[in-house]
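Dear colleague,

As promised, here are the two records you asked about, laid out in our usual form so they can be pasted straight into your sheet.

NAME FIELD: protein one
SEQUENCE, THEN STRUCTURE:
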Amino acid sequence: MRNPTDASPLALVTTPAVDLEAEADLSRCGALKDYWYVACLSSELTSREPLARTFFGTRVVLFRDERGQPVALLDRCLHRNARLSAGAVFGGRLGCPYHGWVYDGSGAVVEVPSLGPSQCGEALDAQGHARAGLQVRPCDLGRVRRFDTLEQDGLVFVFMGGDSRRARRPAFRVPFWGQPEWNVYFMVTRFPNGVTNLVENFMDVPHTVFVHEGWFRRKARKRVPATVKRSEGSVLVTYKQDQDTVTGLGRLFNPGGLPMVHTDHFFAPNVTRVDYMWGERSGFAINSQITPIGPTDSLVYTAISYRLPYDLPRALVGQALKPLVRWYTTQVIRQDVEVMKVQREGLLNGPGGGVFSGTEADLLHADIEAYRRWLLEGGEGAGPADEERDIAFWI
């Protein structure tokens, strides 16, 4: 391990192009699909209407079945390929908007209106006569492709890689979810960029003094030592600055001037967690889970978990302070949306986009790219080796 006090910026280094199109294509994304991806907030998926989502360029329709459980199907009717998400949900079943074919939670056709009352969707006896009390037989017309789902921590997840028992990692848990001392709320943001570039943005400190100047940090021209640990599909950055501060709402979280513990953590292939902690009674965690829509289009589900160092009733914290915290974090995220749009415009400006140059401050990004490139290529073997290194940069 190198000593950061002796470190100088690395020579200019280029890394291979980020293949955003392959990363966002279900047939070409390799092992990137073998993880759980957030489809929506639990509150967004009701029993009244279907919800359309896109994963790796593949359209999926979600609805709740008769038990209230989330269902995800390929968004295409077997009959004339109409988009099922434009249809209706009734009794835990999904009806196509074109000819009314009805699907149950397994994706099976259970009713075809044009066949009349005596059809596969009715309970029939051995002679083919309608009879009450018999089990309904699924129609022989087939099933729409179904994707495994999971609901936890206020989120609905979808697994696009086939049998979810082969998932490479369990669905990510929202930090401090369900803990009474903590408040948690979600922000859903559409970003004009791909997953690799977004996770690097969410893990990046140097950009904060330019993109979020005055809102989050101010240019101080100070040296920041840190340790970057790459292991088991994650990249953990620990910043070694007890006196580091954040502007804006930072004073609200740390009125006593306690040392700040700041860590950034990436979990392959699409999750980041950024923690700012002041002692045991105050802090906030920003957890972002990214769902790839297309090569330069993603939906980000950000859970903001925070605890304030005041002995205030929980209801008061929620009513008085949550709107302020939400407004503040919304402004910061909007700034990231804009700079990700600016980066996308550069990426698409002729050939060569996605070949990055970097220095020591970009070591964590190189580690993230190494993991995602390995998964894109199929994720075979041990993957990038575990490594821990000290770095230093200026902000």
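NAME FIELD: protein two
SEQUENCE, THEN STRUCTURE:
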Amino acid sequence: MSSQATKTPRLLLSLFLLAVGATALAEDRVHVYNWNDYFAEETLSGFQERTGIRPVLDLYDSNEVLEAKLLAGASGYDVVFPTAHPFAARQVEAGIYQPIDIAKLPGLDQLDPAIMASLAKIDPGNAHLLPYLWGTTGIGLNPDKVRAALGEDTPLDTWALIFDPEKASKLAGCGISLLDDPTEVFAAALAYLGKDPNSQAPEDLEAAAELIKAVRPHIRYFHSSQYISDLANGATCVAHGYSGDVLQARERAEEAGKGVTVAYRIPREGAVLWTDVMAIPKDAPNPEAAHALIAHLLDPKVIAAVSDYVYYANPNQAATPLIEAELRDDPGIYPPAEVRARLFTPDERTEREIRNLNRLWTRLKSNQ
């Protein structure tokens, strides 16, 4: 990409953000609902300095919490960050989001065409959703503790560390955790069983449920963020988790200097490839400010800094050269083609399928 091609979107972006800032005096806030630790330290303060619009940030730790708030209506949020498959897919279908005004968003041509094409399948014309960050869901682990429990030659890139009852029983002492997310856990269990990870066939779901039930006594807890600190300080040794979260745990462990090792592995049986997106609720109180924030996040320098901080890949191709080389070259963040071939995205589910999965999940978590 030529330097002029890179500068032109940035110039247009700066002009737009200045214009928004000049008209933001009456409505000088943008209400944001996002995952915990999902911006760089300077992302929001830089936006406020650039536009004069003050961000108000609330946090959630599961797509289900976000969806419940959006479906209830009048959430009060201007920008939200759902996971595309299957959550944002059904939210678009339900009419929860307003169309994005692409005329206000310079630099859209810098977004990865493959990711945009995958989103177009659930959001025709990319009318409501724009990609923010993407990654995988795999296994975070302490290699030293896992090998001490299972042997030096034990494979580390397999869901067997969680779903093989014999292995799980030996690892229970150093701690195993699962995400508090039925879609993710059932997909992983089905992949381990060699079944379609998106299968809704009753016999497949029952097989996955029995598998999870068999290892349930060895699972310390179900949580979608606690494992970051627990891996980092050595309180657990195996975690079903998001790639960037595990890599954040690795960084924290290295900074602490207490000899705790953390690694991330994409299981050989397959794993979820997910994309988190930016969207504007239909009843957003300040859609103009929402567009300004999205435009800010489309700036290659801004989103590169986010990737550097949260250890997740972003879809902005102009940002890739700006990311720290250590992250850009990490296969856990940007998997090579042969690994990406084993990844899958969760399918959209009907309301009946969601209820069925949630019933199974509640039963399993309560150990019934």
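A couple of things worth noting about protein two: The longest strand covers residues 130-141. The longest helix spans residues 3-22.

Best,
R.
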